[in-house]
Design goal:
By secondary structure, the protein is mostly helical. The chain has two domains: 106 residues, RNA polymerase sigma factor, region 2, helix turn helix motif (Rna Polymerase Sigma Factor, Chain: A); 111 residues, Winged helix-like DNA-binding domain superfamily/Winged helix DNA-binding domain (Arc Repressor Mutant, subunit A, Orthogonal Bundle), CATH 1.10.10.10. Helix 2 packs across helix 4.
C-alpha cells in the first residue's frame, strides 16, 4: 500500500470516529487536509480571496455532512468537492459585487486606498489576468485554473467538474483561447511573438498537457 492510500485508509477510521462525536478525530482530519483545501480555494479565487473563511466554512460543512459521506471515494476528494462548490458560490457573489461597484459613478477605494485605477497602474499584469478570467464563464474559468494552475490532469478536471474527458479537454482549450483573446484585447501579447520594442507587456498561457499531475482531484 502506497503512502497516499495508507493515509486515506487511516482517514476513513478518523471519519468514522468523528461520526461518533470524537472531536479530536475531526481535528486530525482538519490538520491533514487543511493545506489541500486552502490550495484549491486560492487556485479558484486567487491570492486575494477570503481563504481562511472559506477553509473554515469547508470544514464546518464537512462536519455537518459527515453522515452523507459514503466512502466510495477518498475523503480528500469529497472535501475538495465541498471546497470547490463554496469557491464557485463565492466567485459568483464576487462577480456581482464587482459589477455593482465598478459600474457606478463612484468606484470607491480598495483596501489599500488605491481604487481600481490605482490597482491597475500598480499591478497591470495581475489586474489584466483577473479581469480576463472574469470574462470567462464559470465552467471554462474553473477548467483552465484547475488544469493550468493546480496542475490537475484532464481526467481529474473531468472528475472534478462531473463531465466527460472530452468535455473537460474542450473546456480547457476554449478557456485558454478566450483568455488569450481577452488578454490581447487588454494590451497584452503572447510571449514568443514578434513585436516592436515599445510594444505591450506579455503574459504566457501554457498549452494543456497530461504531464501535469495534481495532488488530488475532486470526487
Amino acid at each position: 500500500m502506497n503512502r497516499e492510500a495508507e493515509l486515506e485508509t487511516r482517514s476513513e477510521v478518523l471519519v468514522e470516529a468523528a461520526r461518533q462525536g470524537d472531536h479530536a478525530a475531526f481535528n486530525e482530519l482538519y490538520r491533514r487536509y487543511h493545506r489541500l483545501v486552502a490550495k484549491r480555494v486560492v487556485v479558484l479565487l486567487g491570492p486575494a480571496s477570503c481563504e481562511d473563511d472559506l477553509v473554515q466554512e469547508t470544514f464546518a460543512r464537512a462536519y455537518q455532512q459527515l453522515h452523507h459521506y459514503r466512502g466510495d471515494a477518498p475523503f480528500s476528494h469529497w472535501i475538495l468537492r465541498i471546497a470547490t462548490n463554496l469557491a464557485r458560490s463565492a466567485h459568483r457573489h464576487r462577480r456581482r459585487w464587482r459589477f455593482l461597484s465598478f459600474s457606478s459613478a463612484d468606484h470607491g477605494l480598495g483596501r489599500d486606498g488605491l481604487g481600481r485605477e490605482g490597482v491597475s497602474a500598480r499591478y497591470p499584469e495581475l489586474d489584466a489576468l483577473h479581469r480576463a478570467l472574469d470574462v470567462l464563464s464559470l465552467p471554462l474559468r474553473e477548467a483552465v485554473l484547475l488544469h493550468e494552475i493546480e496542475g490537475l490532469t484532464l481526467q481529474e478536471v473531468a472528475s472534478c467538474q462531473g463531465v466527460s474527458l472530452n468535455t473537460a479537454a474542450s473546456r480547457v482549450r476554449r478557456g485558454r483561447k478566450q483568455l488569450r483573446r481577452e488578454l490581447v484585447a487588454l494590451g497584452f501579447e503572447e510571449r514568443g511573438k514578434d513585436r516592436p520594442t515599445d510594444s505591450s507587456p506579455s503574459l504566457s498561457i501554457n498549452a494543456p498537457t497530461e504531464a501535469c499531475k495534481g495532488e488530488a482531484p475532486c470526487a
